[in-house]
Amino acid sequence: MVGLGFAMSENIVYYGASLGKGAASLVGTFVLRGIFSPPTHPLFTSATGIALGYAALTRRTAPRWVLPVGGLLLALLLHGAWNGLGQLFSVFGLVFVYVSLMVPMLVACILIASFERRRVLRATTASSSSTRSVCFRR
Predict the structure, then answer these.
(1) d(C-alpha 78, C-alpha 86), whole Å
(2) Consecutive 10-residue runs of the chain (138 residues): their mean pLDDT?
(3) Collapsed DSSP state (helix, strand, coil) of residue 21
(4) What is the pTM (predicted TM-score) of this model?
(5) Are 39 and 82 in contact (CB under 8 A)?
(6) What are phi and psi of 37, to 5 degrees?
(7) What is the reported pLDDT for 138?
(8) Predicted local distance difference test score (pLDDT) of residue 133
(9) Looking at residue 124, what is its pLDDT?
(10) Concatenated DSSP letters for 35-93?
């Protein structure tokens, strides 16, 4: 949600700037920002969020510090690649980053969410069945 909010705020700035440059600029900005890039900021932010989540789950000191920093660095790297290659190589750079980084990152997020959902369901079921057996034992 943070990534979506940031993208919305950033889009207002980009749409406003392109509005003064004419209709062609506005259409180009809409295609780039409204069609191609909506999943990018949530994906960037998810790198940090996933790292923070795993850091919160561990009791070891090193991962508690390394994971959040690594997640933030990954988010910065992804955002930098998106911006930098897009400006450097125009549409070809954006397509390359989209296919080589964004799509695998989206697949990774889906796999992590699926894995974590199953893990939480197993933990909840195990906790629920042990509580039930204690509560209803005569």
Answers:
(1) 12
(2) 82 88 86 81 89 92 94 91 76 80 88 91 78 51
(3) coil
(4) 0.71
(5) no
(6) -100, 0
(7) 47
(8) 52
(9) 86
(10) IISTTHHHHHHHHHHHHHHHHHH---HHHHHHHHHHHHHHHHHHHHHHHHHHHHHHHHH
Are the beta carbons of 11 and 33 closer than 8 angstroms?
Answer: yes
| Burial class of 11 by CB neighbour count within 10 A (0 to 12, 13 to 18, 19+) | middle
Buried-exposed string 24-47: b where 16+ CB fall within 10 A, e elsewhere = eebeebeeebeebbebbbbbbbbb
At 31, list the tokens. Answer: 């295609």
* 8 A C-beta contact, residue 14 and residue 33: yes
Yes or no: say if 7 and 41 are a contact pair by the CB < 8 Å rule: yes
CA angle 81, 76, 71 (to 5 degrees): 125
Q: What is the pLDDT of residue 28?
A: 84
pLDDT for position 53: 92
Q: Which two tokens stand for residue 82?
A: 């998106």
